[in-house]
């Protein structure tokens, strides 16, 4: 038996709990960086590694070697009679799950059976962010509660991955609109909300802010706070994204970008000094510094200025790449759909 889980925290606890079989911690961040349907293409992996190194500080060489090793282990799937996928409700995990289902859908499984354990809550854990919050005993209480998945889930997962890695967000919007009931009736009942949240990360038609940037500035409008407090409050409000700290620091430094910052971080001379997680960690006491909303940030919140037009953008959302001072795609929250910029 092979358990594929969403990171080392869950892997370590399952091993400590004596779970039957082998455990493979899947270390990827499909919610960040450039994606294509076929990530095995060398040029796709090279671009992905370069962008993640520049944006969130992961060593490109370490990233590529880590991906190669986990793919090597995945290719040995037919050594196992059962494979259990352990995931949760948020975009971070649902994108990971869709990748794996896409991968398995193109293989002959033979005698290997696939199972899924996917939860969006747990008794006594509030707010629930994910499996990593659970103790060893709590995780082990989920043992054998997984459910079988078959060709329907693999087909849906593969189609989700194709839509997620498309350069056109209308592909995802169309899929979600026309497959909502099918998703809800399958073992992928969390996918609709997670990938709808993905689309809402696009710059708004109102002010150029994605859902996470908007939540950040709204917290700051209530008063100054530290980067750590911001991270906690925003990720509590937007647990559907499953955003990690590296992603959040990258987003925060973008909002502080000179010469038109929407927020300022005390003790940093410029946005370039806070331009990446490695540099952020070198700033003494960074997590406890004060973050304040600027006048421009106020005007953007009031829809009187546009973040993209003021600061520019260079951001990947799955297969969508937005760059420059004009966003080719935006999110219309009233219509709940992406529109051309």
Number of separate domains:
2
Order of helices and strands: EHEHHEHEHEHHHHHHEHEHHEEEE
Low-pLDDT sequence parts:
270-278
State the helical fraction. 40-55%
Number of helices: 14
Please outline the major beta sheet: 5 strands, mixed
Structural class: alpha/beta
Radius of gyration: 20 Å
Mean pLDDT: 94
Number of strands: 11
Question: Mind telling me which CATH architecture of the largest domain this is?
Answer: 3-Layer(aba) Sandwich
Description:
This protein is 44% helix and 14% strand. With 341 residues, it is of the alpha/beta class. The chain has two domains: 2-197, Rossmann fold, CATH 3.40.50; 211-340, no CATH class. The chain has a five-stranded mixed β-sheet with strand order 2-1-3-4-5, sandwiched between helices. Helix 2 (42-56) packs across helix 3 (60-74), helix 4 crosses helix 6 and helix 9 (211-221) crosses helix 10. The protein is globular and about 60 Å long. 43% of the residues are buried. Residues 270-278 have low confidence and may be disordered.
Using brief descriptors, characterize the structure shown.
alpha/beta, Rossmann fold, 2 domains, 5-stranded mixed β-sheet, two-stranded antiparallel ribbon, 44% helix, globular, ECF subfamily RNA polymerase sigma-24 factor
